[in-house]
Amino acid sequence: MKVAVDRSTCVGHAQCSAICPSVFGSDELGYAVLVTADGVVPAGDEDDARLAVESCPERALAVVED
Amino acid sequence: MSEDQAGAVAELAATFDHNDHAMRKRCAEVYATLRGTCPVFHSEAWGGFWVASRYEDVYEVGRDPERFASGAGVLVPPMGHGRPLTPMEADGPEHASYRRLLLPSFAPAQVARMEADVRALARSLVDGVLAAGEADLYETLAKPLPMLMITLLLGIEHDELFWEATDTLMYGRLSGAREAEVQSAARDLYAFMAREIERRREAPTDDLISLLMTGDVEGRPYTSDEVLDLCAFMLIAGLENTAFGIRATLRHLAVHPEHLAAVVADPGAVTNLVEQSLRLYTPVTALGRIATHDTEVAGQCIHAGERVLLLFGSANRDAAVFDQPDDFHLDRRDGRHLAFGIGPHRCIGSHLARLEIRIAVEEFLRRVPSFRLAPGPDPGWYQAGPLWVEWDADTVRPAS
Fold first, then answer.
1. A54–B contact, CB cutoff 8 A
2. What is the ipTM of this complex?
3. Hey, what CATH topology would domain A2-65 get?
4. Using the beta-carbon criterion (under 8 Å), do A11 and B337 form an inter-chain contact?
5. Nearest of B2, B1, B34 to residue B17 by alpha carbon
6. Which residues, other chains included, contact B160 with Cβ-Cβ below 8 Å and sequence gap of 6+?
7. Closest Cβ opposite residue A29 in set B103, B336, B340
8. CB–CB contacts below 8 A, A to B
9. pLDDT for B208-257, tens place per residue?
10. Which CATH architecture has domain B3-395?
11. B11, B51, B148, B150: which has the highest count of C-beta atoms within 10 A?
């Protein structure tokens, strides 16, 4: 599974990094960044990653490969 | 809908006031009616404004600052002290510059480093009420915690003046305080902040005020007024709203023993508790925007210069987004709620506010795992003010 962040849409709610820190982090301004190469979701964290994507109020995140 | 019902809804819309406690008390029903029958409606209150009540419409307006601006004021009614509440009431390059400067100080990693300070303050406040077996948790915990924390960040001495002045600024205009009182409170607060700024000109420190003095926009340093407005807003922005959030969350536990037992048994559940509380008891019920040109929202024509209120409290109860929207779901995350707004004006202090609410709850429950409302009428979640609770002395847990 792979996820993506649209950095131009993120405003830093940081729900993603709170819900699935193995995939999402935040930069020095608090905007979302991917912490794994190409947004690959570690095995076992798929549900958290999906919940994180759904939890973004700005809709800045997407599951790009399921 | 019958003619009578239609008339009742028209009346509800025309007289709608998001500040009205009686309305907020039954907001589940009011918001559902408005969302279902006239999602974008016009109220005659406070000089008149449009209201976006559905999640989707709040999302659209909030994320479009080109069409819906903030610089001309977002509070309805305005504070009336004649100064912009920046960066909340700013647009364009100024707004972008203010945020760029402030965001690193309130980013998740930075806020995580504040946890020990917030916890120490909360512990000391909780220690102060244990022996009594009862407390007004609004006065003894919800109000002082954000106040003490922001004075720490701004590098200023705590002063009763702050609370009284911000109280007058935030609520005075709603409760009929005389114009002169509001102006005088604002003058005191801004004069205090101007002195603090002046002091740092001679001896810069590493606090937020010093940081804001270093800002520039489009190649020029901030003016003295810009620095003053930013510093004053930093002081007042997170006080009443965070206090409201702490109070509403503790009150929820006092009236829902099943949720109290659940979070005592599983302290990790406090995170969801806080998110549900923010969703259902949204501290900032609504903020406004001004249309920059003639436009439409959900088919409703809005003219340039007209005000549109983003009704976050209603968006957060929209069944189009949240199943069983008016129930408190301790087992659900519901991260999409709009308690901290949406779009480029998303509350900068959201992570600190979340931290303060969570720690206030954790530290109170650590010592008082069982409590209830004191006898008397339920003061409700929907207004600031006393929250008297009581507990049995033999249920208080030791400090360690």
1. yes
2. 0.97
3. Alpha-Beta Plaits (3.30.70)
4. no
5. B34
6. none
7. B103
8. 59
9. 999 999 999 999 999 999 999 999 999 999 899 999 999 999 999 999 99
10. Orthogonal Bundle (1.10)
11. B51
